């Protein structure tokens, strides 16, 4: 997944005046994940709540 310079500039403008490199990286990763999820949602590439519940039940068995 890639991000446009325009979106990146907007995000950087919202960063606090002082921020660590680690925080920048974490925020950029989060932005990327959100962009991926928005695209999946737009493309109807999601699972239902019921499917999610079934999957989660498997995790805790």
Explain what this protein looks like in three dimensions.
- It is elongated and about 45 Å long.
- The termini are far apart.
- It has 3 helices and no strands.
- It is 70% helix and 0% strand.
- It has 61 residues and is mainly α.
- It has helices at 5-14, 21-42, 49-59.
- The chain has one domain (5-59).
- It comes from Chryseobacterium gilvum.
- This is Addiction module component.
Summary, kept brief:
The protein has three helices and no strands. The chain is mainly alpha-helical and 61 residues long.
Largest sheet: none
| Total beta strands | 0
Give the radius of gyration. 16 Å
Mean pLDDT: 90
Strand content: under 5%
Count of distinct structural domains? 1
Globally, the shape reads elongated
**Sequence stretches where pLDDT stays below 50 over 5 or more residues:** none
Structural class: mainly alpha
Counted by DSSP, the helix tally is: 3
What's the helix-strand series? HHH
Distance between the termini: 34 Å
**Helix content estimate:** over 70%
SSE blueprint and pairings:
Blueprint: H1 5-14, H2 21-42, H3 49-59
Protein name: Addiction module component
Organism: Chryseobacterium gilvum
Tags for this model:
61 residues; mainly alpha; 0% strand; Addiction module component
